[in-house]
Amino acid sequence: MFYSVVLLSIFGILNLFLGFLKSRAWLLPVTLLFLATALVVTLTDWNKSLFFWNYMMSTDNVSVAFATIIIVSAMLILPLSRFYFPNAAAPVPEYYAILLFSVVGAILMVTYENIIMLFLGLETLSIAMYILAGSDKRNPRSHEAALKYFLMGAFATGILLFGVAMLYGATGTFNLSGLAQYVRTTLVNGASPMLYLGLTLVLIGILFKLSVAPFHFWTPDVYDGTPTLFTAFMATVVKTAGFAALYKILSVSFTGIYSVWWITLAATSVLTLLIGNITAVYQQSFKRMLAYSSISHAGYLLIAVTAMGQTSQSSILFYSLAYTLATITSFAVLILVNENRAGESFSAFNGLARHNPFLAFALTVAMCSLAGIPLTGGFFGKFYIFINALEKGLLFLLVVAVLMSAVGIYYYFRVVIAMYMRGSDDNAVADRIIVPKSYAAVLAITTFLTILLGVAPDLLVRYF
Amino acid sequence: MEEIPGVIRTIPLNYYIFLSTALFVIGIVGVMVRRNALIIFMSIELMLNAVNLLLTAFSSYRSDPAGQVFVFFIMAVAAAEVTVGLAIIVMIYRNTRSVDVGILNRLKW
Amino acid sequence: MVDLSQYTLTCALIPFIPLIGFLINGIGFRHIPKGLVGLTGSAASILSFGLSLYLFNAFLAGGNQSFTVYLFDWITVGDLRISFSFLIDQLSLLMLLIITGVGSLIHIYSIGYMKHDAGYGKFFAFLNLFLFSMLLLVMGSNYPIMFIGWEGVGLCSYLLIGFWNKNTNYNNAARKAFIMNRIGDLGFLLGIFLIFYTLGSVEFTEVMPKAATVFGVDDGTVIAITLLLFVGAMGKSAQIPLYTWLPDAMAGPTPVSALIHAATMVTAGIYMVIRSNVLYTLAPTTLGVVAVIGLATALLAATIGIFQNDIKKVLAYSTVSQLGYMFLGLGVAAYSSAMFHVITHAFFKALLFLGAGSVIHAMSDEQDIRRMGGLRRHLPVTFATFLVATIAIAGIPPFSGFFSKDEILMHVYEHSPVMWVLAVIGSMMTSFYMFRLLFLTFAGTFRGTHEQEHHLHESPASMTIPLLVLAILSAAGGVLGLPEVLGGGNWLAKFMSPLFDLSRQVRPESFTQTHLSHSQEYILMGVSVAAALLALGAAAVLYVSRKAVPAPEGTRLPALQNLIYNKYYVDEFYNNIIVKPLLALGDFLYGVFEFLVIDLIVNGVGKATNGLSGVFRRFQTGNIGFYIISMVVGIIVILLINLRGFIL
Fold it and tell me: Is C495 in contact with C90 (CB distance < 8 Å)?
C-alpha cells in the first residue's frame, strides 16, 4: 500500500509531463497502465498486516479490498473520458493527474492509522474534487457546483479539525490505537466532555463528505452541476473511501463508547433514508435523481456502521462494490444519452430499448441493483446490511430501510419504464446511439459483475 | 532564553480553549451570515486558525510535538485550499461580476 | 431411506434446463431460426416435466421420504449460513408436476399462437426464464431461495405483461402489476427477517420444528410473521386489496395469462402458506384473517366478473375469485383441499385461457364477447373443451372442479355455516358468469363484422392438442381426491398428510376428523350442485332463450329495464330473486370497493409519498446560506443530544 501511494503520486506528476506530448492517443492507455500497476502493487499486500511510516498507515485485508474497489472504479471511470472532452484544448492530462492524486487521497483514507493521515487523505481527495467540479469552465452550473462544494466542504473541514483538536486535547494522541487505549483505560474513571465533543465533531466532518442528512444539502446541487464524468467519480470513490474511513475510526478506536455515538448515526441514517428516497421521487432529471439516490445509499451504508457487528465490514465492502458498479453503469449510460440526445431528464431515455437494447439492458440491471431487486449485487448488499441491523436488534432502522427501499423502486423504475415502454418522438434511425468501444467494455464489465455478485455473493464475502 | 512551550504554559490552558472556541464560533457565525464569498472564505480560515491555536496550546501543555506537526499540515492544506478556492471565486467573478453567493441558485430542488 | 446423492443431478437439472433454454433463446433470438426457437423452448419444458415425473416415481418408490438436495453454500453472514439446496417432498413434487406439465402444454400451444409475432424468440426466452424462477420458488429449501424465485416470477410476469410494449395501457398494467407485487414482497421480506430474528434460521426443515417449540398458540410474534407473509401472498395471489393488477395483467399475450396468471405464479401465495403451515396453524387469528379475506375476494371478484364483456377479463376475475376460494380453504386449515383446488384450477383455468386464446386467434384479436356468438360451429374443438372447463369450474359433477371446491366447502361448513352460505352464493355466481361467457361466445348467432366471420377458423393442431389434453385432465382430475363418501379414498389428502404432521401436533383441534355424517355431506353437495345448476339455468334463459346481449358501454340502464320486462314466470323469478340482487350487489361492491378502498389506501400511499416529496424538495433551496444554517442547526442538535449528560 505504501508503494501504491508513492507510485500513484509519481505517476500523477508524470502524467502532467505527458501533457507536453503532441499526441493525446497514449494518454488514456498510459494512465490506465499506471492504475493497473498500482492495483497489482496493492494486491501484493494481501494477507499481510503491515504498518508504514511509524504507525501512520496500516494495511490489512479489508483495506486492501477497499483500495482495490477504489482503484478499479477509477479504472472503470477513466475510459468513459474517451470522447468526453470535445474541446481539443481541454487540459486532459491535468484532469488525469488530478484523478490519480484523488485516488492517492482515497487510499490514504482507507489505510490511515493516524488522524493526520485521515485529514490529509480527506483533503487530497476533496481539493481534487473541488477542481474537477468546476472543470467545465464555460458552464455557470459547473461554477456554482464548484463554489458550493468548496465553501461547504471547507466549512466541514473546519468542523472536523476542531473535533480533532478536541480529541487531541482529551487524549494527547492522534493515533487510532492510542485513542483506543485511552478509551479502554483512562475513560473508565468517568466521561470526558472534551472527548465526546471531539468525537461528535469528527463524525460530523466525515458524515458531511458522505452526504448524510442533515449535511447532505451540497450533494444534489454539486452532483447536478459537475460534469457527469466527475460526478461518477464523486459518487463512487469518495463514498467508498469515506465509509471505509468512518468504519475504521469507529471500529478501531471507539467501540468502547458505542453508547455515545450510535444514536447520532442511527438518527442521521433514518433522516438520510427519508430525505434521500422521498425527495428523489419528485425529480425530473435522471442525474439529480442519482444524486438523491446516492444520499439514500449513504443511509443504508450508515446502518451497517451503526450496527457495528462482526460482519459489518464485509457488508460495507459488498454494498460499496455493488453500489459502485451500478452507479458507474448509470453514469456511463447517462453520459451517452446526454451527448446524443441532449438531455438529462427521464424523457431523454424514451424508447432507448428499441434502438440500443444493450444500453437499456445494462441500465436496467443497474437500476435493479440500486433498487435491491434479487439476482443483482444490490439485493445482497441490502440483505447483508439488514441482517446486520437484525443481529444488533435495530428493528426500527430495519423497518425504515425496508419501507424506503420500496419507495426506491418507484423512482429507479421510472427510467426503465421510459426506456422500454415509451416511444421516442424523433426519427427512429437518428435515435440510435453509437456506443464507443471503451463504453461498451466498461458497461459489459460492470453489468457482468453486478449480476455475478447477485448470483454468487459468497465469492466475495467468504474472504472477510 | 525561555523555551517557547514554557512561555505558552504561562497562560492557563482553559484560556486557550475559550479563546479558540470563541474564534471558532465567530468563524461559524461569519460563514452563516455573510453573503460575500471572500468573507465566507476568510471566516473559514478563521475557524482553521482557531484550531491551530488550540492544537499548539494542547501540544505545549502535553509536551508532545505531534500537535504542532499537525498544525503544519493544516497550514499546508489550507494554503492548497486557498489556491483552489480563490481560483474558483475568480472564475465566478469573471462570469458574473459578483462574489455574492446569494445569486448562485441556478441549481436547486 | 432414499439414497440422496443419486437424485442430486436430477433435481438440479429440473430448474436449470429451462434456464439453459432461456440462455439459448435469449442470447441468440436474432440468429436462431423460428422453428428451432419454439422447439428449444418447448423441449426444455418437456424435459423438465419428464425429470419431474421420474423424480416423482422415485419418491413414491422410496416410501414417500422427503429429502433435501444440497448444491452449494450460497450466502454466509456471520452465524447465518444459507445453502443453495432443494427440498423434495410431497408439496414441491406436486407443484413441480403442475408447473412443468401445464407449462409444457402451454409452450406447445404458444408455438401456434405466437407464430406471427415479431418477438417470438424473446417470448420463449421469457417463458423459460419464468419456468426457471417458478421452479426455484417451489423447490427451494429455505425462504431466501423461495424469495429469489418469488421475485424472479414477478419480474418475468412484468416482462411478459408488457411484452407488446407498443400500447401505453399495457405498460401501465405491467407497472401496476410490478408495484403491487412489490408492496406484497415487502411484507414477505419483513416476514422472513422476523423469522430469522426470532428463530435464527430460514431453512424450512429447521424453522418449523423450532417454531413449534418456541411459539405458543396465537403468540404475538407468530401472528406478525404469518400476517407479513400473508401480505406477500396477497400481492402475488391477487387478494383484496392488492388484486387489481391481475385483471389489468390480461394485456399480456394469452398463453402468458394461462401459465402465469392462472395456473402457476398466482398460486405461489397458496404454496407459501401450505409450506409454512406450522406457523399458520400456530396463529389461528391469522387464519381467521386469511379466511375472511379469501371469502371477500371470492365474492367481490365473482360479482365483478358478471359485468365484464372482455373474454379475458371475465376469466381474470374468475381467477381472482377461485384464488379467494383457495385462501378460504387455507383459512379453515384445509390445506390439502386448497392444494387440490390449486391442481384442478391449474387444469381448467389454463384450459379456459387457452380456449379464449383460440377464440381470440380465430376472431382476429377481438376480445369483446358482445361481438362474438355462434362460434360453436366454427370452432368445434375449442367449444367442446371450453364447455368441459366451464362445467368443471362451475362445480358440476363429475368434473374435477366439483370435487375440489366441494372439499373446501365441506371444511368451511364445519368451520362456520354462515361462511359456507356465502361461499355457495359465490359459487353460484361463478356458474352464472361462466355459462354467460360460454353462451355469449359460442351459442346464438354471430354478431361480429363480416370480415371477422370470413376469417373464422379452428386453430392449428399445436393449439388444439394442448386443449384436448387439458380437457381430459379437467374432466378426470377429480379422481385425485375422490371423497370417501363417493367411494373414493381421497388419495391426495393421504399423500399430503405427512406435511401436516407437525401442525397436527401443535394444535390437534384444528385437524379433527370430519364430524359430518354421510347424509349431511350428501345434502351439502346437493345444495352446491343445485345452486350451480340454478345459475346455469338463469344464464341459459337469459342468454340463450332470450338472447340478451349486454349493451354497449354507457347504456347500462335501458338494458337493465329490458331485463326486468319478462313474460315468463321463470324469468321473473330469476330476475327478481337472483339477477337483480346480484346486479345490485355487484354494482355496489364494485363502486364502493374499487373507488373507496383501492383509491384511498393503495393509491393514497403513492399520492402521499409524492406530496411529501414535493415538500422535501423545497428544502433544497439552492442557497448556500440556507444550507450552512441547516447544517449548523443539525450540528447543534446532535451536540445537544450527545452531550446532554454534561449540559443538564
Answer: yes
Q: What is the pLDDT of residue C560?
A: 44
* C-alpha–C-alpha distance, residues C326 and C320, integer Å: 10
Q: What are phi and psi of A345, to 5 degrees?
A: -80, 170
Q: C59-78: b or e for each residue (b if 16 or more CB lie within 10 Å)?
A: beebeeebbbbeeeebbbbe
ipTM above 0.90, yes or no: yes
Condensed to tens digits (0 to 9), the pLDDT of residues C526-567 reads: 888 888 888 888 888 878 777 777 665 544 444 444 443 433
What's residue C585's pLDDT?
67
Domain span at residue A291 reads 2-461
Q: Would you say residue B108 lies in a domain?
A: no
Smallest CA–CA separation between C526 and chain A, in Å?
49
Burial class (CB in 10 A: 0-12, 13-18, 19+), A350: buried
For residue B105, give the nearest of C618, C622, C632 by CB distance. C622
Q: In 10 A of CB B30, how many CB atoms?
A: 18
Q: Please give the pLDDT value at position A444.
A: 94
C162-221 pLDDT tens trace: 777 655 555 666 666 666 677 788 888 888 888 888 888 888 888 888 888 888 888 888
pTM of the model: 0.82
Q: Which residue does chain A place closest to B13, by CA atoms?
A: A169
Which residues of chain C make contact with A375, given a CB cutoff of 8 A?
Answer: 148, 151-152
Q: What's the structural domain count of chain A?
A: 1
Q: Does C621 touch chain B (CB under 8 A)?
A: yes
Instruction: Kindly list the residues of chain B whose beta carbon comes within 8 Å of any beta carbon in chain A.
Output: 17, 20, 24, 27-28, 31, 37, 40-41, 44, 47-48, 50-51, 54-55, 58-59, 62, 64, 66-67, 69-70, 73-74, 77, 80-81, 84-85, 88-89, 91-92, 95-96, 101, 104-109
| pLDDT in the model for residue C564 | 38
What average pLDDT does chain C have?
82
Cross-chain Cβ contact B104/C622 below 8 Å: yes
Which pairing describes strands C67-77 and A57-59: parallel, antiparallel, or unpaired? unpaired
Predicted confidence band at C601 (pLDDT cuts at 50, 70, 90)? low
Q: Which of A197, A204, A278 sits opposite C643 (nearest CB)?
A: A197
Which residue type is seen at C625?
Answer: G
Residue C86, pLDDT above cutoff 50? yes
State the residue range of the domain holding B93. 4-99
Q: Is A75:A103 a contact under the CB 8 Å cutoff?
A: no
Residues 222-241 of C with CB under 8 A from A: none
Residue B85 near residue A154, CB atoms below 8 Å: yes
Residues of chain B contacting A131 with CB distance shorter than 8 Å: 84
Phi, psi of A227 (to 5 degrees): -55, 135
As a whole number, mean pLDDT of residues A114-142 equals 92
Mean of pLDDT values over A74-93: 82
Spell out which residues of chain C touch residue A402, defining contact as CB-CB under 8 Å. Answer: 186, 189-190, 193
CATH of residue B33:
1.10.287.3510
Q: Answer yes or no: do C628 and B32 touch at CB < 8 A.
A: yes
Write the pLDDT tens digit of every residue in C432-470.
889 988 988 888 888 877 777 777 888 888 888 889 999
Q: Are A127 and A109 in contact (CB under 8 A)?
A: no
Structural domain total, chain B: 1
CB contact under 8 A, C632 and B32: yes
DSSP-derived 3-state class of residue A21: coil
Nearest CA in chain A to B23: A162
Q: Where exactly are the structural domains of chain C?
A: 1-141, 142-532, 622-647
Q: Does C147 touch chain A (CB under 8 A)?
A: yes
**Out of C152, C642, C646, closest to residue A264 by CB:** C642
pLDDT tens, residue by residue, A389-401:
888 888 889 889 9
**Inter-chain contact B35–C620, Cβ cutoff 8 Å?**
no
**Considering the domain boundaries, does residue B57 fall inside one?**
yes
* B107 assigned to some structural domain: no
Per-residue model confidence (pLDDT) at position A230 = 93
Give CA–CA dist C456/A344, Å, rounded: 50
